[in-house]
Amino acid sequence: MSSQKIRGVKGTRDVLPTDTYVKDDDPWIRIGHLHLIERAARELFPLYGYREARTPILERTELFVRGIGEVTDIVGKEMYTFEDHGDKVSMRPENTASLVRAYVEHNVNQQEPETKWWYLGPMFRRERQQRGRYRQFTQIGIEAFGSPGPRIDAEQIEMLDRWLRSLGIPFEMHLNTLGDSACRPKYREALQAYLRSRSADLCEDCRKRTETNPIRVLDCKNPKCQEVAAGAPKMADFLCDACRGHFDQLQNSLKALGVGFIIDSRLVRGLDYYTRTAYEAIATSGLGAQSTVAGGGRYDGLVRELGGPDIPGIGFAAGVERMALLLAQQGKEAATKPALFIAPLGDAEAARADQLAQQLRAAGIAAEVGFRKANPGNQLKRADALGAKYALVLGDSELKTGRANLKELKTGVQQEVSLDELVQKLSGDR
Ligand code: ATP
Ligand code: MG
User: Fold this and answer.
1) Which ligand is nearest to the CA of 69?
2) Among 26, 291, 314, 337, whose Cα sits 20 to 30 Å from the Cα of 149?
C-alpha cells in the first residue's frame, strides 16, 4: 500500500538551504538572503537604541479588532481565528498591537519614559497568494513609545533608509501626514463627499470604504480607484497648525540628516489612532505590484485605545520576503562554505579525519569529512559541490608520515602540509 504525499499549506513556503531543490514558479527566497537581512537589522537597530522584544504568535482576537480596526481587510477577512475552549484567539497578522499590549500589560511606561523595541517573526494573513504576498510571511519592525516627535520620526526614517541602503535595495522613501483628531475629521468629511460624488467609478470595496473608512480608498490598488484618488482633496490642505508644524519640522530634520524623500499625499493608514507621520519604503524595481518593502507611521492614540495611558508611539514593519526577493535578483548571498573537505580512504584514516575536523571546527574553521566509501576522484567531486576551498585526501601513507597534500580546488595548486599544523595553516589562510 502506498501512502500519499502531504503538501504544504497554500500561501506558505519552505525556505531551504538552497533553492535548487525547489521546482517552483517563485523559487527565489533563500535562507542566505534572510540571514543577510536579519543580521543587518540585529547589528544596526541597537545602534539606535532598539532592543529586541518577542511576543507570542497567539493573541486574543479582540487585541487585533481594537488595535488594527474592525473595518480593515486584515481583521475583516484575513485573520486566522479560532475558539480555544471558549476564548477567541488569532494568529498575529502583524506585531504592533502585540507590542502595545505587552507595553501596557507590563506597565513599561512607569519604568522608563521612552521605550524602543524591535522584533522579527512570522505573521499570518489569509490573502490571495502572489509574488511577494504570502499567508505566512516574516516582518522585521520597530516601535518607539513615549516620544511625540518629530525628531524621532526622522530618526526612524533615517534608520530604515540606512538599513535598506546597506543591503543595496533600490527604493524611494514616501512620506505623508495624516493629521490628528483636530484636523482629520474635516478632511474625512470633504473626502467622503468627493468619493460619494465619484462612487460610480469606484470598485465595490471602495464604495463600501467610502462609508466606513474613506481614507483607505486612497490606497486601493485598483487603477480606476487610483484615478479617482488622484483628484481627491488632500490632507495637506486641511492640516491644523500643530500638525502642519510637525510635518514641516520632520521634513527639515530629514533634510538635515541627508535623507531623501518624496511627499506622497495618497499614502495612508486608515484608522483614527494613526496620526500625523506616515512613511513607506517602496522598491523602484524588481517587485511588480507588491512593491512596498516597509510601512511605518505614528499611532498616538493606540496605547490608550488598548487600555494604556496616553502615550504616543511610532514604528515601521518591513516585509522580509520582499526584501529577500530583491536581494536574490542581485545575486547576493551569505552562506558558510567549508574551508576544508577531508577525504579518508579507510577506517583508520576516517578516525583521524574526524579528529582533524573536530580540531578545525574548535578553532572556528568550517570543515567537512567524507562519510561514504568512495574513491578520491568522487570524494573531490563532493568537495567541489560543497564549495570547499581546499581538499585533502587521507590514505595509508599520509597517516604514517603525518603529512598530506592540501589541494586548492579552484586553482588545483597543491602544497604539502603537516597534519599537526593543519589548524595553524588554515587559520593563517583566512
Ligand atoms: P500591502 O499594501 O502590500 O498589502 P500592507 O499595508 O498590508 O501592505 P503592512 O501591514 O503595513 O502592509 O505590513 C508591512 C510590510 O509587510 C509590507 O510593506 C510588506 O512588505 C509586508 N507584507 C504585508 N503583507 C504581506 C504578505 N501577505 N506577504 C508578504 N509580505 C507582506
Ligand atoms: Mg495588505
Assistant:
1) 1
2) 291
The reported pLDDT for the residue numbered 280 is 97
Is the CB–ligand 1 distance for residue 134 below 6 Å?
A: yes
Q: Does 293 sit in the ligand 1 pocket, CB within 6 Å?
A: yes
Mean pLDDT computed over 266-294: 89
Written as nine digits, the cell of 154 is: 526622522
Output phi, psi for 360, to 5 deg: -65, -45
Nearest ligand to the C-alpha of residue 280? Answer: 1
Decide: 269 and 71 in contact? Cβ < 8 Å: no
Residue range 182-203, pLDDT digits in tens: 999 999 999 999 999 999 999 9
Distance separating alpha carbons of residues 352 and 357, to the nearest angstrom: 9
Whole-angstrom Cα distance, residue 143 to residue 145? 7
Tell me the three-class secondary structure of 306-329, residue by residue.
Answer: CCCCCCCEEEEEEEHHHHHHHHHH
pLDDT tens digits for range 309-355: 999 999 999 999 999 999 988 876 667 789 999 999 999 999 999 99
Decide: residue 107, CB within 10 A, 0-12 exposed, 13-18 middle, 19+ buried.
exposed
